[in-house]
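Q: Hi! First time asking for a complex rather than a single chain. Here are the components, and I think there are two in total. Is that enough to go on?
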Amino acid sequence: MRVEYINPFVESAFNVLKEVLNTDIKRGELYLKSTTMPVLGVAALVGLAGDVEGRVMFDMSKQTALAVASTMNGEQLTSLDELAKATITELANMITAQAVTKLHELGFRFDLTPPALFTGDNMEVSDHEVEALIVPMETPQGKIEINVAIRERA
Amino acid sequence: MQTNEQKLQQDVTAENGRQELVRTEKAITVDFKMVTFSLAGKDYGVDIMNVKEIAKASKFTYVPNAAPFLRGVYNLRGEIIPVIDFRIFFHLPAERKSEDAQENLLIVRLEDHVYGVIVDSIDKVVGIQSSTIQPPHPIFGDINIKYIHGVVENQGRLYIILDVNRIFEQKEEEKPRLISETPSGNFFAAQTAILEKEQPGSSAKASASELEFIKETLFALKHFAASPLNEGWVETRFGEWKKLRNNKELQLKNVEDADEFLGNFYSPCNGRLWDEDYAEKVLAALPDLTSKTITVWNPGCGKGYESYSLACILKKRYKDARIKIWASDNDLLAVSSAPNMVFDLESVPTIYHEYLVKGRYGYSFNPEIKDAILFEYHDMKNVNPFTDLDMIMARDVLSFLDPNEQIKVLNDFAEKLKARGLLLVGQHEVVPEDEWTRLGTEPVSLYMLNS
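A: Yes, that's all I need. Here is the structure of the assembled complex.
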């Protein structure tokens, strides 16, 4: 992945999470992966098009998703209902949108697709011919992995 | 825990004014017994609770592909146990005995596992009070401090108490790695096998095993894998190395030694802008290309200096073509700084001056060159979408991959290149002749893919 793209994603993830959860969060070591990866349980996916093609995925366990949604809504949610799902989707939207704005300022043109949310057990994700950049974020609510797999348009 | 409690109790009693008694108690309470032995002239001990028995044995059954410190397996009254040579494990000098000679074995038990441990000689059982054990001190440099449980003095001798639990925990993790990843693992194991069978001694064989060991160390310390790609160099270098070291202390003990050994492996101008001399030679070696767009992949670009050098040279050589270089590295920190590199004019060889523009912070390459290079955070072992490349530059990159990965990546290269595509590798790297034709002359290792 082009090095110029990395920081906008890391920064916006950090800033948005910090703001919406109103707490300190820790960024883990970035790394690359290209094999099929397990998905933790709840995955919000935003597609990217434009100068690049690919997608960003926000991956967390069901428990973390509930805790994050609860914090963001200011009430204790007990099941992953419509509200909780909408909240996680919105979070994915906020982070990606901010990253894309930053990239736009640097002169890169990206378009977004509406986020899609996947939930379930034992899910895996694989990308054809693209390696993924993993940005692990540690929050008090649990671990959120931001998984960016994009490539330059040929 | 118990020790602490005891100590606390003693402290309390002492406060009660019965110091006399406590002192005598201290002298006589033996609550830790250890079996003592020697390694390279120093005294060591292990907790007797971990020692099942001691034995003398020889003729261990050799295990192929195992780590060098694993001498083999031994049949202990029907139970097959692995035998570890502590002297090799801790890199201590050990006299090489003939195969029939008896070795001193400590039979160590850890939970369900039984191991044999070879030591120089076994001394006796020493009883001490555990509160007299002092924590290890970093000056016991011979043995990694994490393996030391503590130090204790007894009758004028200093014993280093080893923590066998930790040692074997570590070994379990280490063994599979050594077997599967060590580049010359198979070869090395085979060598040792021969050596052990045929009695070491002949100098050619000793030298071969020295070389194999150096190869292993290079991989462990620098992740430099000796393989057909660089074997010629490694062997020549070993000859030089022997002269350099007067045939003594050939082994690489630390990263500095390994760096010294690899000192002249690196190609000219490694990791910096190519100087005029090398640049001219590359320029001369480049054949005519018909493509309108010249697409290059430069895996392992590091900080990007060489990618810029190549961009300028390609620009010079193919004036009308559009140059596109995909430069990638798996070191995020290094590659991150590559797109915004700034120079002092004096530090840049003059051949590049025509491509520089002055900015606010110093000189940088002009947009034409900058736009020609795209720096990516990418691991070349992973998939990528590159196809129909005109050229690949990977100087001194392949040698630092596992041998299996080297083969895989080299195949990848052939697949991703166009017919008659170019490959620039390190000065001392050689690619298979049946697939590649050499175009460049020393020190430019430029190859063309056979169609």
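A: The helical segments of chain A are 3-21, 62-73, 82-105. Let me know if you'd like any chain examined more closely.
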